[in-house]
């Protein structure tokens, strides 16, 4: 007996694997907020959890209104999802057919490719320059079949970003029927004068969508809550393909409270910047190549020789209770990605890297 067969394009998909963890030790593989989440969000979650028998608001009105107030945007042009990942999935349902194409930067977020594969579309990767998105390379790969361009800015896993002027140049070079998706999952961490998440562009252009998440700076990864802002026509299309209750009541309530806790966000950014400035140079001093990052993680490159490769370092760290992320799936086999943890976790990481350096 053979049983039902899924679509051929589905069998070609390699499922996404999140960062692994150990029973004991430090999990620094998923770019989670080491400070946890806002106490206000935790309190709101507990209060809402007293009435789990009630369906959530399918329109997430209070959350959309809170987002609108926070960012000065029209809440009617906001749609919420189970993390920004679900927004990407919904875009695939709404805009992609077999034979279509999406474009991403060479080392873009893996989920974009999965979205294309699920729809029978093709993912085109544009080469990067020094692990940064290359606008000219992206535009050169636009064809009549291109439907969506995904740009993670900042990018995971490289930690790089492109200035907003370059984002605007990318948009100006696209046809109006090509949707530009600006993934700002790590936007709150960026402290650069030439950076912008693209909210203004999404408010004006008919083909720009900005996506954001509560998983990173707000520390609500376990609740799966994110949102998107863009043209009415795009938001309407997403609403038509999303589930009627795609975000939970507890996630909505916690997200509203998180938006109101500026002190927690500020503290998270300050901790991240301080530890980035400490950990990155310390690793470089030990002889490791560390790429500049504006996110809450670092991309580390290793030597290509016996005992000193990324896989060797990964095994060495795991033996000491430290899990970080291998980059094979991203086409970066020489690299590992390290999430910034608590000061204690980072101290242990540096000690482990020092031991690994001396072992070579």
TrEMBL record:
Catalysis performed (reactions): L-histidinol phosphate + 2-oxoglutarate = 3-(imidazol-4-yl)-2-oxopropyl phosphate + L-glutamate
Annotated pathway: Amino-acid biosynthesis; L-histidine biosynthesis; L-histidine from 5-phospho-alpha-D-ribose 1-diphosphate: step 7/9
Family annotation (SUPFAM superfamilies): PLP-dependent transferases (SSF53383)
Keyword tags: Amino-acid biosynthesis, Aminotransferase, Histidine biosynthesis, Pyridoxal phosphate, Transferase
Domain of life, source organism: Bacteria
EC number in record: 2.6.1.9
A GO term, aspect molecular function: transaminase activity
Amino-acid biosynthesis among keywords: yes
Cofactor(s) for this UniProt protein: pyridoxal 5'-phosphate
Sites of N6-(pyridoxal phosphate)lysine modification: 216
Boundaries of every Aminotransferase class I/classII large domain copy: 27-352
InterPro entries the UniProt entry points to: Aminotransferase_I/II_large, HisP_aminotrans, HistidinolP_aminotransfase, PyrdxlP-dep_Trfase, PyrdxlP-dep_Trfase_major, PyrdxlP-dep_Trfase_small
Subunit structure: Homodimer.
Family: Belongs to the class-II pyridoxal-phosphate-dependent aminotransferase family. Histidinol-phosphate aminotransferase subfamily.
NCBIfam families: hisC
Name the record gives this protein: Histidinol-phosphate aminotransferase
């Amino acid at each position: 007996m053979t049983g039902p067969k899924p679509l051929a394009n589905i069998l070609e998909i390699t499922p996404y694997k999140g960062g692994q963890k150990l029973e004991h030790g430090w999990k620094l593989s998923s770019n989670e907020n080491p400070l946890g989440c806002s106490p206000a969000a935790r309190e709101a979650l507990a209060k809402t959890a007293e009435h789990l028998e009630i369906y959530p608001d399918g329109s997430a009105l209070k959350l959309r209104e809170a987002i609108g107030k926070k960012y000065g945007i029209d809440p009617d042009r906001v749609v919420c999802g189970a993390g920004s990942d679900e927004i990407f999935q919904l875009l695939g349902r709404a805009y992609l057919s077999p034979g279509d194409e999406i474009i991403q930067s060479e080392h873009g977020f893996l989920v974009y490719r999965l979205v294309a594969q699920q729809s029978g579309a093709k993912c085109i990767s544009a080469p990067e320059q020094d692990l940064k998105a290359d606008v000219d390379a992206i535009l050169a790969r636009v064809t009549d079949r291109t439907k969506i361009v995904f740009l993670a800015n900042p990018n995971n896993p490289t930690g790089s970003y492109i200035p907003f002027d370059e984002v605007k140049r990318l948009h100006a070079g696209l046809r109006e029927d090509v949707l530009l998706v600006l993934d700002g999952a790590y936007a709150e961490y960026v402290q650069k004068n030439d950076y912008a998440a693209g909210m203004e562009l999404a408010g004006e252009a008919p083909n720009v969508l900005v996506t954001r998440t509560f998983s990173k700076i707000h520390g609500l990864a376990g609740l799966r809550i994110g949102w998107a802002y863009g043209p009415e026509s795009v938001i309407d299309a997403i609403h038509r393909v999303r589930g009627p209750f795609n975000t939970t009541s507890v996630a909505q309530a916690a997200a509203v409270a998180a938006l109101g806790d500026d002190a927690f966000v500020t503290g998270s950014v300050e901790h991240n910047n301080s530890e980035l400035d400490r950990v990155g140079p310390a690793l470089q001093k030990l002889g490791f190549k560390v790429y500049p990052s504006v996110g809450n993680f670092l991309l580390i490159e290793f030597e290509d020789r016996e005992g000193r490769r990324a896989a060797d370092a990964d095994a060495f760290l795991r033996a000491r209770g430290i899990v970080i992320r291998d980059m094979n799936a991203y086409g970066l086999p020489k690299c590992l990605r390290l999430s910034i943890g608590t000061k204690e976790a980072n101290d242990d990481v540096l000690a482990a890297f020092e031991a690994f350096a001396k072992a070579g």
